[in-house]
């Protein structure tokens, strides 16, 4: 509110201050959409709990997918916009409460992603040797919060690996674990990750699906890539490719499913040659429990069939598969941000359909949501662009009709954070980190090596004398 208690329209003198929480694709696309319009003067703080931008583009997309990871160059152009201020190393809910943040800005866009794993809910899931794909991905991409000890202890004993789930993340994990060390050398993986993977005793990798190949969520390109590895052979049991009529119909109607089946059928005749790592795709198997004394040594599965609606139905037939490492890749969900409602079942923030946050069934003035925390963990990076645009359109419409307005003088967010001892990482600081990673890579003949320790990232910032 301005001095007389009323709200004022944004102007060049006092633009609308918008905080975006989460500098992943959705946050960056939202910032970009705000800078590409002339209707409402804005200034944007793009906040992330990590000292680095890009969210899952840095800590999700597989390092052996350099072309996909290169999307960060495009995202970087939006960070370079003068109206956008990157404010990294600030955890909303820890360094600053949501309530405190809202005192500094007129509007908040939540784009903090959905980084928690979903669980299987079966006995044995807590045993050492049982990991979530989120753990493994965080580790191999060098996320500062990765549980190195747990993942590396599991990998040291991993002869038989079972990956549960039939989406692209399961393929990423299986591929990274089955690759020859030399195939990963050109990636930006931290050096300790390369070393641990090279020493891991992996002899076989199995990907398990509860339902059939017609219900799998792989994209065809990612699936095909499994068979392009130097030392692994993909094996598929032809019996698993015999489909019920409803699945046949699905394969005929859905081009991706049809193409995936074509790829899988092409692999059904593969023969394993000596010295190669078998990478098996097994369908119609539902995990029942993880078996082991003190650590995982196997996984019991129940054979299934799919009903007319594509649901898995147990047959009662049990099978024990050897496994020293079980990685579940059965989805992501959002973490609750203290002070923000979350729909428990979907793990997303309730909104009006276009991104206005709902509290008690009504749109909450000045609160918006985009990306995975808005629509759940689905789609590719580009899906977040349209999604963020939709949310920003809602924000701009609210600014145009006066629902959202400048609320009065506010203190500078970064100065406030610094005054209370936080160490916000700004764009030029990120550039110092970026340069340090490139230099670290160059010292080993690589284009970049990801620095995985928060302290090392911050040390790179402090090392630059300004
Ligand atoms: C393993 C994996 C592999 C993938 N591979 C591909 C691929 O090959 N190709 C493709 O197109 N898509 C891929 N995706 C999907 C893609 O990464 C997502 O669509 C996209 O990253 C979602 O964007 P987002 O901004 O909503 O969330 P995120 O990318 O998760 O960004 C959220 C950001 O919010 C920050 N944050 C969280 N909590 C807070 C807080 N309290 N305060 C401040 N900041 C916070 C996080 O640090 C993070 O930077 C993959 C996803 C995963 C999980």
From TrEMBL:
Superkingdom: Bacteria
Residue ranges of domain FAD/NAD(P)-binding in the record: 17-179
Catalytic activity: 2 reduced [2Fe-2S]-[ferredoxin] + NADP(+) + H(+) = 2 oxidized [2Fe-2S]-[ferredoxin] + NADPH
Names of the cofactor(s): FAD
Binding site for NADP(+): 210-211, 222, 379
The enzyme's E.C. designation: 1.18.1.2
Swiss-Prot/TrEMBL keywords: FAD, Flavoprotein, NADP, Oxidoreductase
The keyword Protease is annotated on this UniProt entry: no
EC top class, as a word: oxidoreductase
Residues that hold FAD according to the record: 26, 56, 92, 372
MF terms in GO: ferredoxin-NADP+ reductase activity
Pfam families per the UniProt record, alphabetical: Pyr_redox_2
Chain segments carrying region Disordered: 338-360
Family per similarity comment: Belongs to the ferredoxin--NADP reductase type 1 family.
Name of this protein: ferredoxin--NADP(+) reductase
Organism: Blastococcus aggregatus
Organism lineage: Bacteria, Bacillati, Actinomycetota, Actinomycetes, Geodermatophilales
């Amino acid at each position: 509110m301005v001095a007389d208690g009323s709200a004022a329209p944004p102007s060049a003198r006092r633009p609308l201050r918008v905080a975006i929480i989460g500098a992943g694709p959705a946050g960056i696309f939202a910032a970009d959409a705000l800078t590409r319009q002339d209707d409402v003067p804005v200034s944007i703080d793009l906040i992330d709990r990590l000292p680095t931008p890009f969210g899952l583009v840095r800590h999700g997309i597989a390092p052996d997918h350099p072309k996909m990871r290169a999307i960060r160059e495009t995202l970087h152009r939006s960070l370079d916009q003068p109206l956008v201020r990157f404010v990294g190393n600030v955890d909303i809910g820890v360094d600053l409460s949501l309530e405190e943040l809202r005192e500094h800005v007129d509007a908040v866009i939540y784009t903090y992603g959905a980084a928690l794993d979903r669980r299987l809910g079966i006995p044995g899931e807590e045993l050492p040797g049982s990991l979530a794909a989120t753990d493994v991905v965080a580790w191999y991409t060098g996320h500062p919060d990765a549980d190195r000890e747990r993942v590396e202890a599991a990998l040291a004993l991993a002869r038989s690996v079972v990956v549960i789930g039939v989406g692209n993340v399961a393929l990423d994990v299986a591929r990274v674990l089955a690759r020859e060390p030399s195939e990963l050398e050109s990636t930006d993986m931290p050096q300790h990750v390369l070393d641990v993977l090279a020493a891991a005793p992996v002899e076989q990798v199995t990907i398990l699906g509860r339902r059939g190949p017609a219900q799998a969520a792989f994209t065809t390109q990612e699936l095909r890539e499994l068979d392009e590895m130097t030392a692994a052979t993909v094996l598929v049991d032809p019996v698993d490719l015999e489909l019920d009529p409803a699945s046949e119909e699905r394969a005929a109607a859905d081009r991706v499913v049809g193409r995936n089946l074509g790829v899988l059928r092409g692999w059904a005749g593969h023969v394993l040659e000596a010295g190669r790592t078998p990478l098996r795709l097994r369908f119609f198997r539902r995990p029942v429990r993880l078996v082991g004394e003190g650590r995982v040594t196997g996984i019991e599965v129940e054979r299934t069939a799919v009903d007319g609606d594509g649901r898995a139905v147990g047959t009662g037939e049990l099978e024990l598969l050897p496994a020293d490492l079980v990685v579940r890749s059965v989805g992501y969900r959002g973490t609750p941000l203290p002070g923000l409602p979350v729909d428990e079942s979907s793990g997303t923030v309730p909104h009006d359909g276009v991104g206005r946050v709902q509290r008690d069934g009504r749109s909450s003035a000045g609160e918006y949501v985009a990306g995975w925390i808005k629509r759940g963990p689905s789609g590719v990076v580009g899906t977040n662009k349209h999604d963020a645009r939709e949310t920003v359109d809602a924000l701009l419409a609210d600014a145009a009709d006066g629902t959202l307005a400048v609320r009065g003088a506010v203190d500078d967010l970064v100065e406030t954070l610094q005054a209370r001892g936080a160490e916000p990482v700004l764009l030029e600081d990120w550039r110092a980190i970026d340069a340090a990673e490139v230099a670290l890579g160059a010292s080993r003949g690589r284009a970049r090596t990801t620095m995985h320790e928060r302290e090392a990232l911050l040390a790179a910032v402090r090392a630059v004398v300004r």
